[in-house]
């Protein structure tokens, strides 16, 4: 009894000593967590290089686009074919996906061989053989009369340009078919089907069995002499280096090389080698699995070694068992390090504190090695403790995957058709834009005419501004700029002569909501309080200066300093103001304060102020345009056409108030259900219809309503409408500008949507970006059609063959949106080809314009007094 215990103890110690010796010999193959995290970090860097347009060519991890933009969501259904080609055999499958609340997938498949002469023949022979087998399969299932969607798994290095277009880079796995490398394999199989002519299929998708990881650099410090020897003896030296460290093709060979080297150094097999052990490929990866899987792994190691012509000792068998453990563990750990990098990337993309993710896994090493999967799972979870990772084995191979990609692509194609049909109503043809221009010109004439002015939607209001700056203006002027929830008070100093220029000082004040929605006295008392504060701030308390008042609301102007408010817009509801002269209301508030007096010389809107500001810089500027929160235009009209004001000579700036264009129904054929929905819930339903189609205040709401419609139809956000998406005003127009930025990747688009509380996939981000593009483009084109009508009217007024004119422009939508200005300008050029139009951005806002109008008025007044 004592003797048996001593013997057992002896063998345990012997085994322990031998394991320690192997561990010391292969210490560089045993990777610490610190090393694995460093590998993961390097892999992340290579991923980022692979994604970058400029760094992609030199990246070792190529991050090749697959154009698979969505995973199955459970709504896929239908019948699909799949081809799975990646070796000497290939499979043809029929996959039926039913959607009856619980998705069910049924598969039938058949395996066909590819003879060696075809593998090394021409591409035509190969693809004719594949289609012959496909025809045979369809005959057996009696489905040749159906045109079914097909997914093609083609597991060779390819450059993919579309979901259904993939160019073979180079053959591997023993294939040498001529005339295929550099060609699109989908085109080749389509041609083979056409040559047969007895069936037709719709090739929807071509995919790889995985996204190949091609490591070529950056890991030399963890590669061993055995890895280098494997690489030098491979068919592709210097390539796929990472794969050669982790995949089943090379694992057994790594063990064999270690055994040979240790034997040569007389650390194993008493220094003796057999021809079988020296033969490449004789120690298989299956042997590694068997040795590690058997309960008596030492005995299994003996069997394998004896098969290879070696007479091993107990210590040799223990060492072999340990070598297998070290090689397979390193493989699992390296695989885990790269997966950790991928999971970190996904986690950061989603901006989540804790990621929940499922990894689909296939492959013989993962499935058949007794410990690989467990080691992989354990290391991944150790390296990324803030990720909850589930590993799901693929039981049906890549053929089913190709069919599911096809099913997803089919679903997305159906959804895309529905989306495009909806968005089509927002896409305007050139003929439609010319019709908008024509209708705008009709409304302009109606607004100018005394007879039709009352019923015109484009009011063409006289501003009594009859000239633009000529450069002789000088003096100090105050200006107020009121057109939203904030307003500015400005001091503008105009100099002429050699030092001609404008010096400005200004301060911005908020208007509380209670003042916006209270009484007119409360609103104007607040404005005067702010003027008093500004004068004190500038050290000018008690000084009386001429004042220009930019008042950006619909008004009927009776003189340069008398303007009757027709209606509040932009959220204002102050009582006792509509129908009243705003200059009088301002003067009364000044008198109530009894601190100072001001000479209110001119009241204008922001559009006229913008024209005057730009007119100071460019004498050709005779048009003003605002495209921001709201939208409006003005221009210098011939006095003979301004029938509301007496006089035939000269010109007068006309405030178009074009936001109401279409209020009479003349744009109803262009308005969509989304325009109607936004209008219905606005503060002024049925009013300002043109403005609601083109201005910054409403574009975000149009987008939000489209997104809700798409989501209800299951076309977006997986059909789940979040509370945030239901919130009016959440989609500010500034987000449209950000989302449409050319330099913004989908990752950043998703970040914006996440900020808005909208969880999105990559495909969702693409759809949202498309919706933003369509809505903003329509707005720019409509604005361009309106402006084309204006400049053509000026040209026709003057009887000119061609007109050179400058449009002064202001507004956040025009200035900040990445494409709005360009699209609008192109539309004007296309619809008014006889007009040479320059667009000049106003740098100092409409407040400066009000001061310049005041300066011009003072100059004219002084000239008249002389």
From TrEMBL:
<comment type="similarity">
    <text>Belongs to the hexokinase family.</text>
</comment>
<dbReference type="InterPro" id="IPR019807">
    <property type="entry name" value="Hexokinase_BS"/>
</dbReference>
<dbReference type="GO" id="GO:0004340">
    <property type="term" value="F:glucokinase activity"/>
</dbReference>
<keyword id="KW-1000">Mitochondrion outer membrane</keyword>
<feature type="domain" description="Hexokinase N-terminal">
    <location>
        <begin position="22"/>
        <end position="219"/>
    </location>
</feature>
<comment type="pathway">
    <text>Carbohydrate degradation; glycolysis; D-glyceraldehyde 3-phosphate and glycerone phosphate from D-glucose: step 1/4.</text>
</comment>
<keyword id="KW-0963">Cytoplasm</keyword>
<dbReference type="GO" id="GO:0006096">
    <property type="term" value="P:glycolytic process"/>
</dbReference>
<comment type="subunit">
    <text>Monomer. Interacts with TIGAR; the interaction increases hexokinase activity in a hypoxia- and HIF1A-dependent manner.</text>
</comment>
<dbReference type="Pfam" id="PF00349">
    <property type="entry name" value="Hexokinase_1"/>
</dbReference>
<keyword id="KW-0496">Mitochondrion</keyword>
<dbReference type="GO" id="GO:0006006">
    <property type="term" value="P:glucose metabolic process"/>
</dbReference>
<dbReference type="GO" id="GO:0005536">
    <property type="term" value="F:D-glucose binding"/>
</dbReference>
<keyword id="KW-0021">Allosteric enzyme</keyword>
<dbReference type="InterPro" id="IPR001312">
    <property type="entry name" value="Hexokinase"/>
</dbReference>
<protein>
    <recommendedName>
        <fullName>Hexokinase-2</fullName>
        <ecNumber>2.7.1.1</ecNumber>
    </recommendedName>
</protein>
<keyword id="KW-0007">Acetylation</keyword>
<keyword id="KW-0324">Glycolysis</keyword>
<dbReference type="GO" id="GO:0005829">
    <property type="term" value="C:cytosol"/>
</dbReference>
<keyword id="KW-0547">Nucleotide-binding</keyword>
<dbReference type="GO" id="GO:0001678">
    <property type="term" value="P:intracellular glucose homeostasis"/>
</dbReference>
<feature type="domain" description="Hexokinase C-terminal">
    <location>
        <begin position="623"/>
        <end position="856"/>
    </location>
</feature>
<keyword id="KW-0808">Transferase</keyword>
<dbReference type="InterPro" id="IPR043129">
    <property type="entry name" value="ATPase_NBD"/>
</dbReference>
<comment type="pathway">
    <text>Carbohydrate metabolism; hexose metabolism.</text>
</comment>
<keyword id="KW-0067">ATP-binding</keyword>
<keyword id="KW-0472">Membrane</keyword>
<keyword id="KW-0418">Kinase</keyword>
<keyword id="KW-0677">Repeat</keyword>
<feature type="domain" description="Hexokinase N-terminal">
    <location>
        <begin position="420"/>
        <end position="616"/>
    </location>
</feature>
<dbReference type="GO" id="GO:0008865">
    <property type="term" value="F:fructokinase activity"/>
</dbReference>
<dbReference type="Pfam" id="PF03727">
    <property type="entry name" value="Hexokinase_2"/>
</dbReference>
<dbReference type="GO" id="GO:0005741">
    <property type="term" value="C:mitochondrial outer membrane"/>
</dbReference>
<comment type="function">
    <text>Catalyzes the phosphorylation of hexose, such as D-glucose and D-fructose, to hexose 6-phosphate (D-glucose 6-phosphate and D-fructose 6-phosphate, respectively). Mediates the initial step of glycolysis by catalyzing phosphorylation of D-glucose to D-glucose 6-phosphate. Plays a key role in maintaining the integrity of the outer mitochondrial membrane by preventing the release of apoptogenic molecules from the intermembrane space and subsequent apoptosis.</text>
</comment>
<dbReference type="InterPro" id="IPR022673">
    <property type="entry name" value="Hexokinase_C"/>
</dbReference>
<dbReference type="InterPro" id="IPR022672">
    <property type="entry name" value="Hexokinase_N"/>
</dbReference>
<dbReference type="GO" id="GO:0005524">
    <property type="term" value="F:ATP binding"/>
</dbReference>
